[in-house]
Amino acid sequence: MKKRSLIRSIQFIVLIFLLSVELPASQVIDRMFFTGVSISYHDRVGHLSFSDGSEQDIARNEIPSVGLLVGKRFALPWKLRLHVPVNLDYGSAREEPEESFDGVKKSSLFHFGLVPVLQLPLRLNSESAFYLSFGSGLHLVRFTENTIDDFMYFQTCSSVSLTGGAGFEVMTAKNRAVTVQYTLRYGKPVHYKYMKWDLFPYKGLDYKETIFTHSIQFIVMVYKSYRPL
After folding, report:
1. Across residues 204-224, what is the average pLDDT?
2. Which of 34, 41, 73, 201 has the fewest CB atoms within 10 Å, measured from its CB?
3. How many CB atoms lie within 10 A of CB 52?
4. Residue 13: phi, psi to the nearest 5?
5. Are 137 and 125 in contact (CB under 8 A)?
6. Is 17 helix (H, G, I), strand (E, B) or coil?
7. Which residues have a Cβ under 8 Å from the Cβ of 203 and sit 6 or more positions away?
């Protein structure tokens, strides 16, 4: 018991020491404002839950989208960085109404997300680097479905996600840089109760979608220093 207590005490002291270490001077590229555009591809699978507890997977067409992002990058200890983008995306896709349970002929989504990620840079030299990223995000999705009988569903859903990716960045001037990055996001941003009286007269069915979002982002970064007047 004494040995375990000693080990825990040492671990605690080491942790406090690491947390108290001052952050060394970071490079300009580690603390920049940024803006950019994204091209995304949303790979979707629908899930319909019945009252008896059974589920049915439903094939959905992929949705391409374009978007904008703005945010700030912060330097962290241990050569890590915190990359905090705000994303806006819009996309739509034609469906196969004869193959769907609800006769949907078109699906579209408008997405707003806050997706902070940790980045681990792997520097090639003082002006360029590869980096890996991982994190989680909060999302708000406005999901629209148009059916063959000219009915339109509107659903606004909130969700969380897991995100990973990689990128390459190059300094183009003393206070500017450009980045190209790929991200893969996993989440279930679409979830609502499907209601149709002639098919389900007593209660609706729970409908969800699992979406894997593949995204290529082109980003311009600028460093801005603030000096007191």
Report:
1. 87
2. 201
3. 5
4. -65, -45
5. no
6. helix
7. 51
The reported pTM is 0.75
Give the pLDDT confidence of 128-181 residue by residue, as tens digits: 899 999 999 999 988 877 666 666 667 788 889 999 999 999 988 888 999 999
Q: What percentage of residues in the chain have a pLDDT greater than 90?
A: 35
Judge whether 165 and 195 are in contact, CB under 8 Å. no
Q: Half-sphere exposure (CA, 13 Å, Cβ side) for 138?
A: 2
CA distances from 115 to 48, 56, 219 (A): 28, 30, 15
Q: How confident is the model at residue 77 (pLDDT cuts 50, 70, 90)?
A: confident
Domains located in the chain, CATH noted: 23-222 (2.40.160)
Q: What CA–CA distance (Å, rounded) separates 128 from 133?
A: 16
CA distance 62 to 44: 6
Length of the chain in residues, anyone? 229
Q: Name the residue among 170, 165, 164, 76 with its Cα closest to residue 129.
A: 170
Q: Is the pLDDT of residue 116 over 90?
A: yes
Residue 64: count of CB within 10 angstroms of its CB: 11
* 3-state class (DSSP) for residue 116: coil
Residue 170's identity, in one-letter code, is: V
User: Is 91 within 8 Å of 109 (Cβ atoms)?
Assistant: yes
Inform me whether the pLDDT recorded for 17 exceeds 70: no
Whole-number Å distance between alpha carbons of 81 and 27: 11
| List of E strands, the chain | 33-49, 55-59, 63-75, 81-94, 104-114, 117-123, 128-147, 152-173, 176-194, 205-222
